[in-house]
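User: Could you walk me through two proteins back to back? I'd like the raw sequence and the structure tokens for each, with a short line separating them so I can tell where one ends and the next begins.

Assistant: Of course. Protein one, sequence then structure:
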Amino acid sequence: PADTSDASQARARSAPAPVTDVSKLCVCDLLVAQCDANCCCDPDCSADDFSLFTTCSVPVVTGDSQLCRQKAAVYSLDVEANPPERIFKLIDQVNPSIFCIHATNYKQALYLKSPEIPTPENFDRLLDKFGGATFSAEPDSWNLDTDAQNPPDANETYRYEYGVPVQTEDAFLRLPSPVVSSWCSDANPAGFLVNQATKCIRPVSVEKCDSIQALSMLFYINSSILAVPKSSQMVNITVQSIVVQSLNGMRTLLNSSDVLRLPMILDGLCINAVLGVNYHITHTDTGEIIEAAAAFVLGAISKEALSIEQSFEISFTQENTQPVPLSGNPGYVVGLPVRAGFRPQGYPFPAGFLSNKHSQLTILQSTSTQDCLAAQGARAPVLFGYNMISGCKLRITAAMKCQPLAETLLDVLKGQSFPEYVASFGNSQAQDVLDWVPITQLHISEQMISTTLQSSCQIPVALGIEVKWAKYGSLVNPQARIVNVTATITTTTLKQLSSGREKIIPITSSVVFTDISSPAEPSYKAWPTINIKLPFDFFYPFV
């Protein structure tokens, strides 16, 4: 007991290793590779820049304010020096509160992990684990031995975060792109979870095509990717597919992608030159890359060509998940489908959304025969921003029963699985419950009177969908966001036809998009007009 008490006191006296290096934090560093005015912590600023500062916009930079003891970076200006200089100090800051955190030794709290989505299979297990009044982690994760849990590099990031360049064994994964002009620059790194698609122009010479690295497949797959930053675990880039493009643009998919095809000169042409690369990266929910694949488009270059256009693309997919087609990032793009889905049934809380077969909002698709009974099941996706109308004709006879006819028409108008929600953004995820807008369903009845009929029947004849959207975000780059969706079913009352008579009625579906964005208000007021006459030489010597 005595030894245990001494060990506990020793641990209490020793401060834990810092998780965040405050000397590298800078919240006012907004410009990339440029010095921000009065930002004393900006690493892009030089001594000449500091001499022009009037004050430090962020004088103190700290990490977590709830820690009992932590490092603080203090910035100030020595205005008496000639020229003025920046002063940097790293001090120990003590939290006066008695309710503070002594050691951040819960490793799972140091990064964001996607929660497990409840399903009918795992619901009972999750209920047993988290259904009580309290729950905690495994006892082993609460080890108070901070020295063992904080090696010298404990403040380094050992998982990829959004936007962090994907590292390779020699540098980073290249995604060539145009920088200033349309010419390709190989200095553009691929950011983690940042889906990109670029096109650029590459100067070529057929006589030297076998020595131009950017035209070879090896240039894009010869460096292995680091599974996590600054680790020794490597992930090789495999060749997923190879497509060969002829001079006239015809493409052919090769049966085997195991053999590398290197550029070479044949009959005055440079063949097997890389025209396009499509990377696909698979990662875990904790930010670790586990697979990397590349699909190539190879082509031939004629000796008259002085340059070629190359296209590059990269996409990321989390393991054990199916890629969901997006309709924008984040706002909707005009012409792409409106995404839709359902809320899972049987849960006491909103756990997420299940997409329908195509994850899209659909309407009745017109057919050449215009027969409603034959058009059952034919659907067309609702494209964002496009007002649409479609329909068919229904031939009613005296032999038709009312109830089956009404159910069939409702199925023709709404489909077999009409969604309950639509995504407010083009990239809304199923687990983000607040990013889904419920569809409000209304019913309107119309009366149709016929003196030659005997008994009445009410059937749906029209479905009208109104999608209200608004511009969201910056005025420079506004994003389209759906804020309300209303589906209105219009029914009409028919009377039973007498024997031997027929009636044809039209059935219609329509979609209308309405922009409800409020007009932007100017952030300035007009300058007042001063009605005076200036001297004739007021602007001399300028005109």
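----
Protein two, same layout:
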Amino acid sequence: MAKAFFRLQKFLRRTQFLLFFLTAAYLMAGSLLLLQRTRLVIQQGSRGTSANQALPVPEGMAGVGIADPRTLQNPRPSPRLLVGTDAMQEPAPDQRHGPRWLVSRNSELRQLRRRWFHRFISDQEPMQTAGFKAMKHTAEHQGTYVGCFSDDSRERTLKGAVFYDLRKMTVSHCQEACAERAYTYAGLAYGAECYCGNTLPATASKPEECNSECKGEKGSVCGGVNRLSVYRVEEPRAGARRRRNVIYRGCFRAPENLTDTFPASLIQPNLTVEMCSEFCSKKEFPLAVIRGRECYCGFPTGRFSLHDDGADGQLCSGTRNASSAAQGKYCLVYQTPVQDTRCTDRKFLTTKSKVFVALSSFPGAGNTWARHLIEHATGYYTGSYYFDGALYNKGFKGEKDHWRSRRTICVKTHESGKTEIEMFDSAILLIRNPFKSLMAEFNRKYAGHLGYATDRNWKSKEWPDFVNSYASWWASHVLDWLRYGKHLLVVHYEDLKQNLIPKLREMVEFLNMTVTEDRLLCVENNRDGNFKRSGAKQKDFEPFTQEMKDLINRYILTVDEALRGRNFTGLPREYVPR
């Protein structure tokens, strides 16, 4: 009996092992088969896309060529082009320049641009912090540590200027930023936030409560939760730096009652621009106004908006020693280094937005700048369909919020296509001159948000390939939003730049928000933001060949016709001819 039982037990063990082996082999075979089928589907889909969805070239432009987006996955230039009788079917003559062949381009380019958008995020951050590294190494001191203070976010004492760097903040970085704007104190909080001002916070805290390590400097303390590590800024060449940062705004007719218009004033014999600017900087005002020996400090307001053209420029031209202003009718206006803080407070929406609004544009069309304007005008963060670490680190906190959370006033997107567009209830469609947009996006692609592509980049084969692919995307992006967008406000970048306040007010009203005139004037005073390309400008040269110009001009005419067909204003005249 025992022997029979032992044989049965041995058989069951072998059967169990055999079943386990067969099950594992079955799963492996199924996985291999699934992978092989997926590979075949992808290959077939790719062949179908390149053969059937390639964008036909406008008439007379066959020599230019449209680059295959799949070849652009590799950063090295590829000689493969899609133009030719073997690569694509010849479109009907009446379909060459219409919206259909532009729309078909989207499905092919969408995957390409998503890869390109996220490809350079990690590379942009080191590029954009290069200036900060230079400041860190050239700092000659650490200033004088004053102490740890409590920080009330509702009513800050150090509110003269606010900066964020959620990856690279250091004590020297904050001190240099505050010193450049002529502030006396620099305060750091949460390890990444920098605040400037000329008055110390009222409530001191225990030193151990400032316990947040600086994000960009191990071993250094940058405040804490609702706590500020405050330093007194010491600048060896303070006078020279402040004079350099004073900007002449112009000669304007003085308001009737200067005392009521400006909250601070000074009467000084032999008054100079430096004296008035330093006095107003200490009072934390962005405007220094000089009339004779009188100095006034304040903000742009409805009474004194700096928009009036009543003052003849000749009355003050060449007389910045205030001689013409002595008559009392006119005054000289200067921009101090101090930041206008009336519109710098921002937050997320307290309740979810009922209307899902997109801020849509082609890359390089000024979307980041428009977000800066909208955030400062409304006081609410904007979101993004993407996550750009460089933008988040510089204060666009909506970058990290999920784009469908509805906690932001609008959502940045460069997407097009029926599915992506119909997700939004309405949209602000921002359009910029394609020649300028292409150059701006090419600069961003190779040098980040603030840099310029090198001569080597412009002269490489990457540039013509880039133009051939992205020029068609510029057109198809607009056409898709015109076709599938539910409720659109079309804004031209050039109009927004030239008529900032009227256009920005129109955008804010479209977002169902109300804003005061003083806040709009504050936005205008801070119009550039932190992502305007500055420093050495790129050399004056013409990067577009005649073939490129002809190609882009045809796209411009197509988009202009589509806009007018939807009863929108056509493209600005400066777009064509080139």
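Residues 247-335 form one domain.

Let me know if you want the two compared in more detail.
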